[in-house]
Amino acid sequence: YDMLMDYPALMFAIFVYVITTIIFMLNLLIAQLNCSYQATYQDMLGFARLNRGKIVAETMPSVPKGRWERFIGQLRLDDRVEFGEGDIGLAGGVQVFESASANITTVDMIRRFGGSTSQAAQWPQEDAAGDDEEDRFDRIEKLIEKAMKRMTSSKGSKKKGAAGESSQGQGSSDQVEDSAGSAQEQEQSGDS
Predict the structure, then answer these.
(1) What is the pLDDT of residues 162-173, one digit of tens each?
(2) Helices (H) then strands (E): counts for the chain
(3) Residues 45, 47, 48, 54, CA torsion sign
(4) CA–CA gap between residue 92 and residue 87 (Å, rounded)
(5) Residues of the chain under the 50 pLDDT cut
(6) In this structure, is the dihedral angle defined by the CA atoms of residues 102, 103, 104 and 106, taken in order, positive or negative?
(7) Within its chain, how far is the Cα of 99 from the centroid?
(8) What is the pTM assigned to this prediction?
(9) Residues 139, 44: Cα–Cα separation, whole Å
(10) Mapping DSSP to helix (H, G, I), strand (E, B) and coil, where does residue 99 land?
């Protein structure tokens, strides 16, 4: 140590190396503890489910048969579960209602076709004419969502910046007009 005092550059380099090593090792320890905690948490959830299943299996023999049959009857597993209004789905399920804002979907993922369900019958051809308009509406909707996000984020930066201008010097309304204009140009170029 006394010899290092004579060479301040070497002393500085050793201190930087030691401090960097300590920080790296502490970060590595934190990462390992985090991974260990996640694995332990997953195991805990699995054991809790197994324990709950064991309790249910142990309690089932003590439930009277009539009460069990009433419970199964109240579940109405023989009734078809309705996906939407007038859209009758499959039997054997339990319908759970949720608010419309919980999982927002703008595109319906279930496509229904009328006619025979025979495997020998071909699927009907989809009309591509309506898809162009739907694609346009989807693009416009996405542009509006982006513009709304920009406007809400620029409101937060109004307090910091001058009069809500972005870093490029344009206001958020100018950006919305530019994006709407570019969307119209894309549609016109796609039509020709």
Answers:
(1) 444 444 444 444
(2) 5, 2
(3) positive
(4) 16
(5) 129, 161-180, 183, 187-192
(6) negative
(7) 17
(8) 0.34
(9) 45
(10) coil
